[in-house]
Every structure is written in structure tokens, then in C-alpha cells.
Amino acid sequence: MRKTKILVTLGPSLEDKLDKAINLIDGVRFNMSHATTDYCKRFLNILEKNNIAKVMDLKGIKIRIKEVKLKNKILKVGDKVVIGEDIKFNYNIGTIEEGHFILINDGKIKLRVVKNKGDKIIAVVEVGGEVKEGMGVNLPDTKIELPIIDETDLKNIKFAVNNDFEYIALSFVRNKEDVKELKDIINEYNGDCEVISKIETKEGLKNIKEIARESDGVMVARGDLGVEIPIENIPIEQKNILRTANKYGILSITATQILDSMVNNPYPTRAEITDIANAIYDGTDCLMLSNETTIGKYPIEAIKVLNKVAEVADKHYEEFGDKVCLGVKSIDEGLVYAVYELYKKLNVKLVITPTYSGRTAKLISKLRIGSKIIAPTPNIKTLKRLRLVWGVESCLMKEFNDVESIINTSKSIAKKEIGKGIYLITLGHPIGQKKTNTIKVESI
Q1: Residues 6+ apart with CB under 8 A from 430
Q2: Residues β-bridged to residue 330
Q3: How far apart are the first and last CA of the chain?
Q4: Percent of the chain as helix, strand, coil, to the nearest 5
Q5: Which residues touch 40 (CB under 8 Å, ≥6 apart)?
Q6: Half-sphere exposure of residue 392: CA atoms within 13 angstroms, side-chain side
Q7: How far apart are CA 380 and CA 357, in angstroms?
């Protein structure tokens, strides 16, 4: 059984083949930088029918070139450019200081600011190239003062709430206040979508701990992150982000260029295969495909490759994987460590964790035990959220009324899953308090 989960981005390449992929994936992402709510509607039925987790990825704040007035749009090394005159952005340039870098088109063009005159900036070209209207602009040294959510995002959030999306991903998260703003909007719409914070800026990296504490999940968004920071630092920051997410017991996703060569080729590179395994050993819950399934020539093949590599890597996690140290100071944490000790000492084959919210199942998952984790729940939304959590398999059960019914249901699950052996049940006592405080050791 594959334990690392797979999230795919839906786009032209996959949309007509989704039925072929449905049993190979755990979640679908809608990238609202390109998708519309009408586009999302087309696929809701098949996703609901198969209990696939739905992720709406908001477009977020993005600075772009609004106008290019240069006769020759090719910038050469050493050229001086006047931002605000030769090239205009959809952003107030007043906060960009002398010495700051301006990166255009995913960092392919690099300018260094030599003077800020308020309404104009003089910059020297350090890496040249052609500039066009609509190209993205990154300001890695500048504190961006833009609203994290705009009117289009608000409409999309409302759609996500009304259509029971499990997750909403927030782009370019800078601090915990950004996360709180999205959560407040979801609450205003009477929603319960969980928030995934995409870490893709220097400011986000700086504030990763407070962001993780406020979020339900984080994404290592290696695309824009690789523009904002030196590319050689990405492996270190990936480990840092994933370790922080696991410490706080929240969902973690690794994204961007997972199998980028398979956009145009039917087979991956050896480096990509190694990258997948290393992301798993860094502690990611989930791996996300982007271009591979939106514009790629081989979307199904890419998903199959990711399945195979993850399945093999998962089998060796206890040997090579990062050892998680939870930082959640609560009864839950103590109970989870007790589960781990029992697993090691008693050769536990199965952990059954009946849950309303999925919280205990997520925490148990973080310790990466080798045995199967099954999370029965009466809440269909919890079941679908848990589709993205490492090693957790969820199933529907009736509302819990008493301890005996939980034990009997768990015994039936254990007989089906392991036949014989030792298994653990976690539960809350008394029933109804929605807090886990008890472990029961059983055998069949």
C-alpha cells in the first residue's frame, strides 16, 4: 500500500482522462490563476463520487509588468532601465530600495536598483532578456504591501465553501495575519475549509513557525521559492518547512517540478526519482503534480511513476526517513507517543483511530509507524481531508454512541485488515467530548 499521498492539478492534459486516474490519486487541485468556477463545476460529481479531496488554490498576489515602452524590448547586460517610465508594474514601486533586486519572468531577467526617485526607479540589467507585458515580477528583497486576497479570490472562496471543498490554498503567505484573514473570510461564509499556506517568499520562510501554528497545512512551493532565494538553498528550506509542519502536526505538501521532464517525455530522469524519494524521507505527507497533469503529454504515465516510486520509498521510511519530534504540548501528543512505544514493543499490526475531526489520526501519522492507520469517521469531509495525510486510510462509520460500539466496529475492521495479531484503538472517554485520551490494546 502506498502511504505518501498524491495530489494532481487538473488541466487540459488530464481533464478527459480523469476517470483513468481516479483510482491512482488522492486529491485534485484547481489552480485559480487559470481555472474558473465554471471549470471546477464540471468535475465536482466525479470527485464527490470517489471521495477525492478538493483543493482550491487561490491565485494570490502577483506583481506583473503592466506596460513596456522600450522600442527594443531586449534588455542587455549593463543597460540602465527606468522602472515607472520604460517599464511599468501593477505595483507601487516606492518601497523598492537601492540595492534591491528585481527579478522578471521567473528570475530569467535580473535587475539591480541603483536609485529610487519615488515615482521612478533606476535599475541596471545584470541578466538580460526580452521583456513583455504580463510577465511576472519578483521582489525578493522588498516587503510587499498588497492585500493577500482580492475580489476575485472572495468569489472563489465563496464557491469553495458552497461546494464543500476540503482545502483552500493561499499563495504568497507572508505571516500569520494572512492566514487569519483567509480563515475569517471562510468563517464569515459559514465554511469549514482548511487552509494550506504556500511558502514561496523570503518573508514566508522567515515567519514559517508562526504560519505553521496558524495553518492547517503548508506547501513547499518550489517554483516561486526558487526565484526568491538562491536555488542551492531550496533543499535546505524544503527540509526546514517539512520539519516545521510535522512538528506542529499539520499537513505538508511538496510541489513543483516533481516529474517536470515528463511534461514532454514518457520516462522520468533518475534525479527526479531520487528527488521524490528524498521528499518522502524529509517527511512530506503528499506530493503534487502541476505542469505534468495540466499541459504535459503524459499525465497518466506521470501519475503511475509517482505511485510506483512513492510505494517503494514508503517501505523504507523507518530506515531512511526523518524522525519527527512533535511540538504539540497536549494530551494528544502524549497519547500519540504512547501509541508509538506500543507499536515498537508489541509488534502492533494496525492502529484504529475513530475520529470526528481527524486530529488524532494526523498526529499518529506524523510518527511514521510502519503499521496501517485506519480512521473511521461519521464525517464525510474528515474522510476526504484525510485522503492527503500520510499513511492514513479513512472509512465511514455511524456516529459513535458508546465505547462498546467503537470496540466492536474496530474489531470487525481488524479482522478484515490483519486476520490475527495485536492492534490498538484510540478513543475519547467519555464518548461525545471529541477529545482522544485513551488507548486500548486488543488482539485477535
Answers
A1: none
A2: none
A3: 22
A4: 40, 25, 40
A5: 30, 56, 159, 163
A6: 30
A7: 10
Which of 246, 217, 237 shows the shortest CA–CA distance to 324? 246
**Domain 63-138: assigned CATH number:** 2.40.33.10
Angle (CA) 346-325-8 rounded to 5° is 95
Third-level CATH fold of 331-443: Pyruvate Kinase; Chain: A, domain 1 (3.40.1380)
**For each of the chain's 444 residues, which pLDDT tens digit applies?**
899 999 999 999 999 999 999 999 999 999 999 999 999 999 999 999 999 999 999 998 889 999 999 988 899 999 999 999 999 999 989 889 999 999 999 899 999 999 998 889 999 999 999 999 989 999 999 988 889 999 999 999 999 999 999 999 999 999 999 999 999 999 999 999 999 999 999 999 999 999 999 999 999 999 999 999 999 999 999 999 999 999 999 999 999 999 999 999 999 999 999 999 999 999 999 999 999 999 999 999 999 999 999 999 999 999 999 988 787 677 778 899 999 999 999 999 999 999 999 999 999 999 999 999 999 999 999 999 999 999 999 999 988 778 888 999 999 999 999 989 999 999 887 776 677 889 999 999
Q: Comparing C-alpha atoms, which of 132, 73, 144, 123 is closest to residue 104?
A: 132
What are the b/e assignments for 189-221, b being 16+ CB within 10 Å?
bebebbbbbbbbbbbbbebbeebbebbbbbbbb
Rg (CA), the chain: 23
CATH class of 5-60+149-317: alpha beta
**Strand-strand pairing, 136-138 and 101-104:** antiparallel
Q: Which residue has the cell 517527511?
A: 283
Other CB atoms within 10 Å distance of the CB of residue 167: 25
Rounded to the nearest angstrom, the gap between the alpha carbon of residue 4 and the centroid of all alpha carbons in its chain is 13
As a whole number of angstroms, the distance between CA 22 and CA 28 comes to 10
HEC-encoded secondary structure of 353-376: CCCCCCHHHHHHHHCCCCCEEEEE
Question: Cell numbers 507499536 correspond to what residue?
Answer: 343
Domain map (residue ranges) of the chain: 5-60+149-317, 63-138, 331-443
d(CA 174, CA 193): 20
Helix (H, G, I), strand (E, B) or coil at 411: helix
Residues facing residue 345 across a β-bridge: none
